[in-house]
Amino acid sequence: MLHEFNTEFESATPTADDAARRFGDLLARDDVLAVVASPGASDAPTDVGFALLTLRPTPYSDHPLAQLEELYIRPDLRGRGVGAAIITRSLFEVVARRCEEMLINVDADDLGARRFYERHGFTDRDPDSGSGMRCYLRQL
Hints:
Elements: H1 2-8, H2 16-27, E1 32-37, E2 49-56, E3 65-73, H3 82-96, E4 101-107, H4 111-119, E5 123-124, E6 133-139
Parallel strand pairs: 3-4
Antiparallel strand pairs: 1-2, 2-3, 4-6, 5-6
């Protein structure tokens, strides 16, 4: 799925072996979390979607800040609630780890992603920076 994500958005993509090794290394850490959507039916595709989150210290809280590093849903499954389910589960998981905020960086021109996060309670914290990126934050 990572290859599809990167090629969909015209980003460089590692080889499958490199991606598997890197994900394995990341997921072995205590400060990295993956939320994976599984198919609802036995004949459904196995690759549905995932979120990759990191937890990091911040001087603004005694608890870690959660950052959504990646969220990917297969294009043919978008608009069916998979992303909403992954975000909901991700929020549950980071609250269980005592995070008080979740941060997401979104390309300013990705209006679909911006609307998606806003529907799920995130607010644009940097609307006037002119940087081309938007920083969305949600209090937990």
